Amino acid sequence: MSTCEGPAPTATSAAQMTPPANLRERAKGLALRGVLDRVRPLAYRRTAETIRCLTFHYLFPEEREHATRLFAALKREGDFISTAELLATLDGPARRLGRLFHLSIDDGFENIASQAHPLLRAQGIPYALMVCPTFVPEPGSDEAAGAGAFDAFRRNARYARSLPLADWGTLARLAREGVEIGAHTLTHRQVSSLAAGELPAEIAGCRAEIERRLSAADGHPACTSFAWPFGRLTSMSEAALAVAASAGYRAIFSSVRGSMLPGRGVPRYLPRHHFEPGWPIRSVVYYATRAERSFVPPPLVH
Q: What is the C-alpha separation between 17 and 5, in angstroms, rounded?
């Protein structure tokens, strides 16, 4: 992107965040969202007792009513558990029977606090919010400075449009209301492309900054969850994974799909099924409940 370009406009809908870049992407999206994800839920084998981690990024006001129905549908299919319960269930005997879900939300957009948090709290759904501290604004910060930070985040995260991020005051309030604040690197860069000397600051430094900023949030617990940006196998490296483990993160999340079974131990990184709350309810339920082989972490590409 040219340095002389002005900031991207603010997104007002999910479709503006990651629009297809070319005809090939449009065709792929049509095949997935328009055809396959509407046909596959009609007849498939459902799982009975598994743990499946779910993740999304944003929720716009016009999607809130649909999202309320979506999460109610997921709750009818299984129980949502916190990260602490997830790790305990993987490490030891099952504390709950049946289908279990874990929810984490990446990037820390303000519309999670204003739109998603009230409905998730009303439905008793715990979740972790993964944030990039470098771009989190101060409460009441200058609008122009905030817009610059949001646009810098947009470029690193490869969104088409900018979107405000929740400020530190909002994150502290969410933490007091039971939301786990997790790490998503300092600056949302692809860690597999970083030099070895950059990894400690980007990964371990992210945890240190979150804990420093939220230490006064009524006993906010240590930051022990980490989700690497972009979530793909090509976006993580063995060196970065080792830094994350040595930094003290107990739950390291990918966006590689898969389900897990209780008592099998915590894998070196966890699978997550990505969706967005505006997606068709049947499609999301399909991905959350379909039977599949238990997750074995594939080798990282780098």
A: 18
